Amino acid sequence: MLGVLMLCSIPAFPGGPGLVNSHIMQSAEYREISPLVLASVALLGHAALCIWYLRSCGRVAAPKMHVSSDLQSSSNFQIPELAIKSPASAIIWKQLRELGPLIAFAIVGIVVLVPLIHWWDNQQGGLAGFGEMLEAVTLAVAVLVALVTGIGVLYEDYSAGIENFWRSRPINVHLWFWIKYVTGLAVLTICFGTLLIFADWLDGWRGNPLATVGFITLLFPLLYVLALAAFAIVRQPIYAAVLAIATLFGGWLCLVLMSPHGPPRWLNGWGAYPVFLTIVAVISVFAWQAVVRNWGWKQHR
């Protein structure tokens, strides 16, 4: 009984969902566990991790300012730390400054953690390869980071007082939104996508490399834009994370319930790509309009 409970708890941890079909969990006891139970454990576990992270690290530090020595004694005038030549480069720099450290920290954690997990698994007689382990942990961590990154695109700009300020400025809100959107998505996809492709290469290209790239270009944008759209509507990071995760798993659950005999044929191969790409496009347009038209819950301000 204890062994079954331990196996059930694995999907709740980072890297757990990616290990479901690996050599680590091929015991007869594990195969008897319902997929719905595993999905529920993964949903609750990752939602708890995401909420904990947002509550602990969701505050954005104020940018540093240098005060001119000549003016310090006679004025409170402050000079920005970095001069930006254009509005577009300023937005890109701001997004990289906010999201870059989080993604870099996550990648360093993966690089440090995976060898330790792989060594421990080998000591226990596990059969999982290093590439398989790296892919599983990267995928699970990337899911959480994609949610946090999507929320982080608008988090600081939607804080009390700041939103009223930038909405009153003569800026192109459409350009502002799409530059922030593309910058965050590009950093997320390039960094974690490179790790996943590298893991697939270490594993001897067991799958189709093109399928790996297709999976990367579908999963990250979907999670990212779900979190972004959810935050644009509810304006609260915890609620947005829960709403995005619930929407993702709710859609997956509806698909499972509608197809009790297995995945539909259109999900096999590249047939799913245009469907999911359309979903990402629709949610992106919805998030864009929500920002431009100032939709959403404003009672917290």
Properties at a glance:
single chain; 301 residues; mainly alpha; 11 helices; 2 strands; 69% helix
List the topology elements.
Layout: H1 2-9, H2 28-31, H3 35-57, E1 65-66, H4 69-72, E2 79-80, H5 87-123, H6 130-155, H7 162-167, H8 173-202, H9 209-234, H10 237-258, H11 272-292
Antiparallel strand pairs: 1-2
Main β-sheet: number of strands, strand sense, barrel status?
Answer: 2 strands, antiparallel
Strand content: under 5%
Q: How widely separated are the two ends?
A: 50 Å
Side by side, the strands of the main sheet go 1-2
Describe the structure.
This protein is mainly α and 301 residues long. It has a domain at 84-292. Helix content is 69%, strand content 1%. The protein has helices at 2-9, 28-31, 35-57, 69-72, 87-123, 130-155, 162-167, 173-202, 209-234, 237-258, 272-292, and strands at 65-66, 79-80. It is globular, with a radius of gyration of 22 Å. The model is unreliable at 60-83 (pLDDT under 50).
